[in-house]
Write a structure and sequence with these properties.
With 229 residues, the chain is mainly alpha-helical. 58% of the residues lie in helices and 0% in strands.
Length: 229
Amino acid sequence: MLAPDVEANDREDAIVAAMTLPADELSRALRTSRWNDDPLFLAAVAQNPNATSGILDEIAHRKDRKLHEKVYGSPRVLGTNRKGLAVMRLVALHPNVTEATLVHLAESRSDYVLSTVLGNPKTPEAILRRCAGRKNDLYDWGIGRNPRTPPELLRPLADSDNQYTRGAVAGNSRTPADALARLARDKEWHVRRDVAMNASTPKEIVEALKGDNDERVRRAAEVRGGPPK
């Protein structure tokens, strides 16, 4: 039996290694590592850019509820996951995740996991529609920032009580012009800034934002549309 400090070091080294292993070694480690049920180890696997769709799907089908919850650890074992996102959120964010895996994760009991799923452009529209209109800020935030959300789902979110949902909608290229016009008058500067930075915002709205009372908004509008006329 290893001494506690040796075992702790072994665990930490295995977690750190899992962040950068090539795909074949990563798959082997997921099967054989003594730490392969450890949430931090699985978080390391899920943030490894070499993780294949098959590896991600295998993790997504694990039953441990802890994998849907925030993880905690030292900066070394968290790696690029500085906020300690849950393992399943890391899976949903991974570029190699498939639509099928996202459909499975959409059944998560964690609103945070589901919000991340809703923000992924690979998530089927049917799931976005199923979760729309539930008055859940986390759902709305995910739907609002998804670049494939239908315009008719974005329009009502422009009137959300949540400033971050409005900000997500303000930056979405599929937001209708009438909703962008409303958001250009939003009380929160960052929402108006996101309207100014949105490539789909009509030129006349961007031009008007060059006269905004907040310098950050004016600067964003000028970057997008050039100096004031």
